[in-house]
Specification:
about 375 residues; mainly alpha; 11 helices; transmembrane
């Protein structure tokens, strides 16, 4: 078994050597480079796979000890948050006093920002790990273009088992909707539940287009995991103070049925093409493409002059797209779209601020920046846009 790498200045770092715990492959999970900088290959918590894909050149896997170390760090963060006096909401927005609701984030009406603590992260880990393990039954290697009337008995059994596991994960996540102190995390959990149910409901009459529902669900889980890992690894606390506070949301997010929330985009949104264009433009930028092929485990202190120049080149690009994401978000009449877009923008700004002193823990900030817009674009596809 491979031992975890030495702790860096922010605690447990993403591993740099192969271990015996295989991360989950996934496809079409959202925007962003697909080379060595694809955060999907760095995550220390498994996330559900949406479809097989060819892995990038950096094939990282984990040892079980590394996973245990991260869970322990996350648990410490969660316990310290839960035991606080409520005066600090961990960077997620302004919370008014006097709420009698059992929804901890009910009075979070302030701006979305980089989250530095959240009590829901520790219980999220076993939920998503259990779901990911069920998906190893062969569903993770499925051909999503094959409809239900062409399934073999084995494939049908795989889909049915995953559908049941998604329902179980959704049921368990409903408690986290109430537990989190942050509005945007509540929305992420709500949408994880909604799209998990939607995909599971479609399995009996599955067609290729239904795979987009699984892509949304998986991309949401990526973002939640990125938020939680940036807390556990310390990058959120280190970079959050460097990012200017944003503006409160233009629209109030409504709290519905926490066990059966509605999808935030049941039909195509007028902004879908704008989001698709913005995401595609950032991914296709030549400077971003070149930068994405480098090794993200190398800290800023060890960069070559050429790699430093590449990082200097992408800073204004990422800053520009962070502004673009926020601008699109603020123009939306959909409160959840607004919050997800601003979340991407703030994590992108945090990542940019951290580039001069980069360590591999900052990768989790980039994960949120990269994946949060993908929730919107994948939801657009699931709602019927091309």
């Amino acid at each position: 078994m491979t031992q975890p790498p030495p702790s860096g200045p922010w605690g447990a770092q993403p591993p740099q050597q192969p271990g015996n715990w295989q991360g989950y492959p996934s496809a079409q999970q959202g925007p962003g480079p697909q080379g060595q900088w694809n955060p999907q290959q760095q995550q220390q918590w498994p996330n559900p796979a949406t479809a097989p894909q060819k892995k990038g050149p950096l094939k990282w896997v984990l040892g079980a000890i590394a996973l245990i170390a991260v869970i322990a760090v996350t648990a410490v963060v969660a316990v310290s948050c839960a035991g606080g006096n409520g005066s600090n909401n961990g960077g997620g927005g302004t919370v008014s006093s006097g709420s009698k609701s059992d929804i901890a984030s009910a009075n979070d009406t302030g701006p979305v920002s980089v989250i530095t603590e959240d009590p829901s992260c520790a219980p999220w880990n076993p939920i998503i790990t259990t779901l990911a393990n069920v998906e190893k039954n062969g569903w993770d290697r499925r051909d999503p273009s094959i409809a239900t009337n062409s399934w073999t008995p084995d494939v049908r059994s795989q889909y049915q088992a995953v559908g049941e596991a998604m329902r179980n994960a959704a049921s368990q996540t409903s408690a986290l909707v109430k537990l989190t102190t942050h509005r945007v995390m509540r929305e992420l959990y709500e949408q994880f539940i909604a799209y998990s149910h939607s995909y599971a409901d479609r399995i009996s009459d599955y067609s290729a287009s239904d795979n987009d529902l699984a892509i949304v669900e998986s991309t949401i889980s990526d973002v939640i995991t990125g938020v939680c890992q940036s807390i556990a690894n310390g990058s959120a606390a280190a970079r959050s103070p460097l990012v200017a506070a944003g503006s409160p949301p233009s629209h109030k997010s409504q709290i519905g049925d926490t066990s059966n929330p509605a999808r935030f985009m049941p039909k195509p949104d007028s902004q879908c093409q704008d989001w698709k264009d913005a995401v595609g433009q950032m991914t296709a930028d030549p400077a971003v493409s070149a930068w994405s092929k480098e090794d993200p485990t190398v800290p800023a202190s060890s960069w070559s002059p050429d790699y430093k120049a590449q990082n200097d080149a992408v800073k204004p690009i990422f800053s520009r797209f962070a502004d673009t994401y926020e601008s699109l978000a603020r123009q939306s009449s959909n409160a959840v779209v607004e919050d997800f877009g601003v979340l991407a923008a703030q994590y992108g700004r945090a990542f940019v601020q951290g580039i001069p002193t980069y360590t591999s823990a900052d990768l989790y900030l980039f994960n949120v920046f990269q994946k949060a817009p993908g929730i919107i674009t994948a939801s657009c596809r699931a709602a019927g846009t091309s």
